[in-house]
Amino acid sequence: MSNMRSSENAEVFTPELLQGDVDKHKKTYRFVCPHAGHFQCTLTNIVFVMEGEGEVLYKTVSWDPRLLDGLGQIQPAGPLYNIDCFHGSISRLHLPHCEISKENKDGLAVAHLTGGNIAIIQPLQVTENHVMIDIRDLCMFGILKRIFSPSPIAAQVLVFLRPITARQKEKIMDVHLLPLNVPLSEVKDQHAENTHIKTSSKCSLTPATEYSLCCQPEGSTVQPETEMFECNFGPNYHATFEVFVNVNIEEVKLSLLDKTNGKEVWLPRRILLTGNE
Known about the structure:
Elements: E1 11-13, E2 16-19, E3 27-33, E4 37-41, E5 47-50, E6 54-61, H1 65-68, E7 74-86, E8 90-96, H2 102-106, E9 108-114, E10 117-121, E11 125-126, E12 130-134, E13 140-146, E14 153-161, E15 170-179, H3 184-190, E16 195-197, E17 202-205, E18 210-216, E19 221-223, E20 227-228, E21 241-246, E22 251-258, E23 264-272
Parallel strand pairs: 1-4
Antiparallel strand pairs: 2-3, 3-6, 4-5, 5-8, 6-7, 7-13, 8-12, 9-10, 9-13, 11-12, 14-15, 14-16, 14-17, 15-21, 18-20, 18-22, 19-21, 22-23
């Protein structure tokens, strides 16, 4: 398609975050578009193809499993976004996906939800990172995929440090295993009392596979011992693992093992527990 552009050529923007009226931890993203073009959000990686200037408001909402019941072997493959645009028009969306295999990429489509109805949009193109669609009406959009036998997807390991009190004898970390297209900002909003510890988080994980988290030095405790990786796209992002270490320890090494073959899928990372993001 002659007018198709890759998402990598988009102008990058960081949206304004508006606090929700009902749920204070639920943010709405706001982007004031200055002119026509391709614009990529740094927090969600969505690309908006704009016909002109306008204001875009978007947020994640919960998938309603009842709407997917009649679609057969199909499941969500990304967050569901509610998108509104004022004083301007969006002609295309590039929604981020996390599929690695060609078979899974070929099976991607986009759900368009309006008024309790669901329509399936076939992509114009699927790149390494995005599913591109033409749109006419706005409302809710989310990526779907056919259910195949589980195969690896692009994923992320997110580490958070809980607040440390004066009498506390242990530091506690929450470790989340999530698909790569879950926005970090959504997880941080839900755990605002914790400090996100930046580290190289990207890895490949296979849904319905058991993993174990390893922590050095010895004497630290990880619970549970193993946990199954599931493609969680919200609304709740609970920790996959909890790690307990002596309060005086300022650095640990974390790694992730695939229990089926014993291989490290996330190589040992130095994690500094100084409480600074």
